[in-house]
Amino acid sequence: PNAVTFRVRIPENLIGRGPVAIVDDFTGEYQELTQIDELHWAVTFSDVSPAQQLSYYYWLGSWENVEMGMDCEEIPARFVDLDFAERSPIVIEDTVLNWNNVPPCGDLGTE
């Protein structure tokens, strides 16, 4: 079976503000990640159909707290090629720099 695991590191100032989630275009659903330690979260999708390219975002609790760039700017969706002929399972390692509505990018986020 084709499996893909997403592992993400969150900023240190956001410890305890989870849950972290992912939304993608292969399930189209919001999926909470499992907390590995204070800074790392992960989720594995099994039986993934090979696709040319997959796009996804990370959220902190809800869409309103979508990931943001270093200077709190909006960023485009992340993309990955799922080439299971090259490797399986596939493990994607990401880092979130900031979240919308959460300091330093605002103060309306989860507390």
Describe this entry's structure for a reader.
- This protein is an all-beta fold.
- Helix content is 0%, strand content 47%.
- It contains no helices and ten strands.
- Strands 2, 3, 6, 7, 8 and 10 form a six-stranded antiparallel sheet that branches. A four-stranded mixed sheet has the order 4-5-1-9, with no helix packed on it.
- A hairpin with a 5-residue loop joins β2 and β3 (30-32).
- The chain is globular, with a radius of gyration of 14 Å.
- The mean pLDDT is 83.
List the helices and strands and how they pair.
Layout: E1 4-9, E2 20-24, E3 30-32, E4 34-35, E5 40-45, E6 51-60, E7 62-68, E8 78-82, E9 90-95, E10 98-99
What would a concise description of this structure say?
The chain is mainly beta and 111 residues long. It is 0% helix and 47% strand.
Key attributes of the depicted protein:
single chain; 111 residues; mainly beta; 6-stranded antiparallel sheet; 4-stranded mixed sheet; 0% helix; globular
